[in-house]
Amino acid sequence: MAADHYVYVLSCADETLYTGYTTNVERRVAEHDAGEGAKYTRGRTPVELVHTERFDSKSAAMQREHEIKSLSRAKKERLVADETG
Question: Sign (positive/negative) of CA torsion 54, 58, 64, 70?
Fold first, then answer.
């Protein structure tokens, strides 16, 4: 059975947004909160999961991660708002 692949966006304590890739969102968010995630999120805890997208392949997820990381902050905020509102 193939694993699901996810792209996620976190809202950090300093109000910045972090985008990442994982196969287990719950575990990865916990790692970020524990200071064991990406260097970027260390010292910016606690983090809040504000957006996720699921993909069937790692390549599709990684491509989407790159797309989101390339967005302006305003466009990232709209992406998050579309999911929450």
Answer: positive
Looking at residue 44, what is its pLDDT? 94
pTM: 0.92
Assigned CATH topology for domain 5-84:
GIY-YIG endonuclease (3.40.1440)
How far is C-alpha 9 from the chain's CA centre? 3
- Provide the residue ranges of all domains of the chain, joining segments of one domain with +: 5-84
Q: How far are the Cα atoms of 24, 28, 42, 43, 72 from residue 3, in angstroms, in the given order?
A: 9, 15, 27, 30, 30
End-to-end Cα spacing for the chain = 34
For 33, phi then psi, to 5°, come to -65, -30
Which three-class secondary structure state does DSSP give residue 52?
A: strand
